Amino acid sequence: MNLLALLHSPTASGGDTTTRRIAAHLSASGYSVLLVPPADAAELTAVAEEHRVLALVGTHALLSGSTFLETGLPYVLALGGTDLNEYTLEPVFHALMTKAVERAAGLVAFNDDFAGRCRTLWPQVADKVRVIPQGVRTTPSAYSLRRALGVGQDAKLLLLPSGLRPVKDPLFAIDCVKRLHAEDHRVMLVIAGVSYDEDFEAIVRRRCGSSPAVRYVGTLPRDDLHAAMREATAVLNTSTSECSPNALLEAMDVGCPVVVRDIPGNTCLVEDEVTGLVFADPDGLRAQVRRLLDDEVFARRLWRRGQAFVRRTHSMQAERAAYAALFRDLVDDLPPVVDVPSRDRIVRANGVELCVQTFGDPSDPAILLVAGASASMLAWDAEFCELLAGGSRYVIRYDHRDTGRSTSWPPGEPPYGLRDLAADALGVLDTLGVARAHVVGISLGGMIAQVAALAEPARVASLTLVATSPGEGVAGPDLPPPALRVLTELADVEPPDWTDRDSVVDHLVAAARPLAGPAREIDEYTGRRVAGRVFDRAGGRLESAGNHAYLDHGSPWRPLLGRITAPTLVIHGAEDPIHPVAHAHALAAAIPGAAVRILDGAGHELARQDWPDVVPALLRHTSDDEGRISRATTSL
């Protein structure tokens, strides 16, 4: 699939770097991305037609959005700092941006602060906004800033990686550091960044003058900038407004303390005295720099925490997965007349038609994801699937019977039982030519996985059982039932008008709320977006998903769990109200060698906030080659 990314910002600027990084992520995910310099709508349309472009991506809601509006193609906009901090203040620009975001297929905010501001400005597009933190990869060169400046190791370099623009406020830094230098001649400010305006550059240079306290070194190549950060005593940010400054993340990643102005765009990344230092005024900056100079142990602890934060929450792998998932959803939602290769497919398995979608390389170990009761494949977020695929896994998700685009029956009349659903799961593997797969099931899907592993153990390379239960023992139930509070809340959820999209979306989101841990809140914006897609994919048959409540589970399988030989990982929320945590321990006790991972605070869910722990655990658990395809893949 061909995409087009529009370049608006000067080379080596933050906006330009962001656009190219997003394009690189999409290219690595199998898309062909054409980078195009600024162009009007007619030029852009001509280029798109020539290269058979199906969708557009831009990093300015105004500059890209106003052009994209007139092309007629679907597009995604990443919201930059200039968009929300400056352009929205101009009525004409704001009106154009409103049209652009309303027509967009998706909107990207780099942090929760910007997502909240976007939703406040344009509540009508709240569900379109996705938070995708910027990924960081640093590659320091052999460049030495100290050598280039001709200063010794005793110099205390405060590096300001900043384009020369008033909003970046380099003049504030210059004045503050001159005073610091007067107190301690070792302190020196180095400004590195592109010049946007000759007149403003002249002002900066005049303010620097011939002072030994300040140097402007112009634009440094990216790798040299990373090397300079590694040598610096601290990296500063003195901007009066920001979006999500990637330079701060890069500084933390290479192990340099950061000292930042107290504005939302900075403090959404930097927690004062934890991952960096925050100041509000010149005296505050002076005091924070002095702390770093006077306490090396404190400075070392600060950068280590900052580095850990960045590597956990701003990985390039996570960012790539998020953009791949965004465009996967965009492609899936294109009109059926548009021929694209990555759509889901209908296969014939176990005597019924099932809708299947895959991620990753078919030659990698296969992971089959089995959703819970009444849930389609969308219960497994595309971004979660992309994260697993990025770990060299071939990921398979599918719609159960009576969900999504698979075969359905009238509500209340399911002519099948739990064991039929287990046979469906194995049938999906047959259609893809997968002899053995790592099977991951959540809730009812975990029960299906257990039954499948007992029925055909040779097909299951490993089991991962999430938020599920072993069912009843021979002597009857001995595990705690669902929490009465949650059952009452679920009973109070009003049935929807199954023909009305808004009514169904409200119903699905309301039904999801009680399942989260009591200390957690569900992401309602994501929930509403997914619920809308669930409704759209069901083709008017969504009420049939309730048939899973009538399933015949057959004879108890708990007494047989000791026969399972597949390596088993049990993942369970500590606050699961449907299957209290005792169910997890019962599973682990019944399955030989099973490991248990309890998610603090989690309910009956696999929430996004748990992914940084769950995804690596899954990749480790499925690290052997048992799930590799062993016969030719059947064309879908």
From TrEMBL:
<dbReference type="GO" id="GO:0016757">
    <property type="term" value="F:glycosyltransferase activity"/>
</dbReference>
<dbReference type="Pfam" id="PF00534">
    <property type="entry name" value="Glycos_transf_1"/>
</dbReference>
<dbReference type="InterPro" id="IPR029058">
    <property type="entry name" value="AB_hydrolase_fold"/>
</dbReference>
<dbReference type="InterPro" id="IPR052622">
    <property type="entry name" value="Glycosyltransferase_G1"/>
</dbReference>
<dbReference type="GO" id="GO:0016787">
    <property type="term" value="F:hydrolase activity"/>
</dbReference>
<dbReference type="Pfam" id="PF00561">
    <property type="entry name" value="Abhydrolase_1"/>
</dbReference>
<keyword id="KW-0378">Hydrolase</keyword>
<protein>
    <submittedName>
        <fullName>Glycosyltransferase/hydrolase</fullName>
    </submittedName>
</protein>
<dbReference type="InterPro" id="IPR000073">
    <property type="entry name" value="AB_hydrolase_1"/>
</dbReference>
<feature type="domain" description="Glycosyl transferase family 1">
    <location>
        <begin position="146"/>
        <end position="306"/>
    </location>
</feature>
<dbReference type="InterPro" id="IPR001296">
    <property type="entry name" value="Glyco_trans_1"/>
</dbReference>
<keyword id="KW-0808">Transferase</keyword>
<feature type="domain" description="AB hydrolase-1">
    <location>
        <begin position="365"/>
        <end position="605"/>
    </location>
</feature>
